[in-house]
Design goal:
globular, mainly alpha, 3 domains, single chain, 360 residues, two-stranded antiparallel ribbon
């Protein structure tokens, strides 16, 4: 649908390519809202709600395209990368694509750091817990689907402008590509503890998938086997976590074997482990020092002069650092936070204590 909207606006309306992308983005958000309402308000299962929306959009696309199943619109180079004046055939597409990807990653990272974005992530992680915290999970699902479908429609518009045409079947098989991209990206760049890395990982995974796909075609594989190769790539992508775990286990077993077999290797391994433990402890102490400094800056004497916006930003940063530390240290983090809170209170009361006030 994003591709069709973009094609019609450029071909029939002579619209600017950037405007066409924005309109396609809004159209995708509306489609996502329909799926969300079907799921949350009418209680239709999520997969079935998506299938119903996709089925309906087949007719909607024909209405948008005025019964045309294929639209070619490479008119006067009105494409998303036409605003960059570079002579090379590939540089404008590449530079424009990178700029768009970076902007979207930054926008998503900012959005999911807000209260609304955190509520959406909480709903996706544990809906029951989110409800217990007073979050309207139905509304958050609808917003999440609107956002995701808006980005899907934007990708359709960009893909159509890249090729200079749009068709009814241009999205066929995209879910397989998306699945492979996510799995490859998560395996190569684990982002469980860092949302920015998760976004970057998906982007890198999609690029790697397309590179593999292009090289398969480049080496002369017949078009009849392309789908088979795609399926094999997806299977390998799904097996990557298992392969990675297997090699980690093999490495640990080999390390244990060589420790017992060769004294020199054992001495080397002990020094290596000591250095690793020292680096880990150094990082831990640095994280504690950063949390202490932020805690004092926000809740200490100097925190009274902060503007509401700056205080909110610093509190959000403090919460992120605490959450990251807690993920690494587990239950130990709670005792560390108690000590930091106590030291902050003592530092504050010691400054206020001059003049006969109680310093206890």
């Amino acid at each position: 649908m994003g591709g069709m909207v973009s094609a019609v606006l450029i071909r029939d309306g002579g619209a600017d390519p950037i405007l066409a992308c924005l309109v396609a983005l809004c159209a995708g958000a509306i489609a996502g809202m329909v799926t969300g309402v079907l799921n949350t308000k009418l209680k239709i299962p999520p997969i079935l709600a998506g299938i119903i929306t996709l089925t309906g959009l087949t007719s909607v696309n024909l209405l948008i395209a005025k019964s045309r199943a294929f639209i070619s619109f490479n008119i006067n180079d009105k494409l998303y990368y036409s605003w960059i004046d570079i002579a090379s055939d590939f540089a404008p597409q590449l530079i424009s694509g990178l700029i768009i990807v970076i902007v979207i990653i930054l926008a998503l990272y900012w959005f999911f750091g807000t209260e609304l974005g955190a509520a959406i992530r909480a709903t996706g992680t544990n809906e029951n817990m989110a409800k217990a915290q007073g979050i309207n999970t139905s509304a958050k699902k609808i917003i999440a689907l609107m956002l995701s479908n808006a980005l899907i429609a934007l990708s359709g518009a960009l893909f159509a402008q890249y090729g200079g045409n749009a068709s009814q079947n241009m999205g066929t098989g995209a879910i397989v590509i998306g699945l492979a991209a996510v799995i490859i990206g998560e395996t190569l760049i684990p982002g469980k503890r860092n949302f920015a890395l998760a976004l970057i990982g998906v982007t890198v995974g999609s690029i790697i998938y397309r590179i593999i796909y292009v090289y398969v075609i480049y080496f002369g594989l017949q078009s009849e086997y392309v789908k088979l190769i795609t399926a094999i790539i997806v299977v390998l992508a799904l097996c990557l976590p298992m392969i990675k775990t297997f090699f980690i286990k093999v490495g640990k077993k080999a390390d244990t074997y060589f420790r017992g077999k060769y004294p020199k290797y054992n001495a080397y391994a002990i020094k290596r482990d000591e250095k690793a433990a020292a680096r880990k402890e150094e990082k831990k102490q640095k994280a504690i020092a950063d949390i202490k400094a932020l805690q004092l800056a926000v809740h200490g004497e100097n925190g009274a002069g902060l503007s509401p916006f700056k205080r909110a930003m610093m509190e959000r940063k403090l919460a992120r650092k605490k959450a990251k530390f807690e993920l690494k240290e587990g239950v130990k983090a709670l005792a560390v936070f108690d000590i930091i809170d106590r030291e902050t209170e003592e530092a504050e009361t010691s400054k206020q204590g001059e003049g006969g006030q109680d310093n206890a």
